[in-house]
Amino acid sequence: MIASNIFRWIGSLFTDILFLPFEWLRLQIATADAGWWISNIPNFGFLLVLLVLFAYWMKESKRFVDEGTEDRV
User: Fold this and answer.
1) Residue range 49-72: average pLDDT?
2) Mean pLDDT computed over 24-32
């Protein structure tokens, strides 16, 4: 019974809280011609996070190569 309630709470969290911005965006697009830029705002956000993480990863990789501590096989 407790496990069932946990999974119901997780489902409620996602559908009622975490997906609200996407629901708002879907309604905005349906009611007005919001255009390509507005509908791709979440994609641009994800891309920005990905680029920042990739830059950090490459910086750390260069640091290890410069120090000579990279794992060579």
Assistant:
1) 90
2) 71
CA angle 59, 64, 70 (to 5 degrees): 135
DSSP string, 9-73: HHHHHIIIIITHHHHHHHHHHHHS--HHHHHTHHHHHHHHHHHHHHHHHHHHHHHHHHHT-S---
What does the mean pLDDT of the chain come to?
Answer: 84
Cα separation of 25 and 40, whole Å?
Answer: 10
Q: Is the pTM of this model over 0.85?
A: no
Instruction: Return d(Cα 60, Cα 66) in angstroms, integer.
Output: 10
Which amino acid is present at 28?
Q
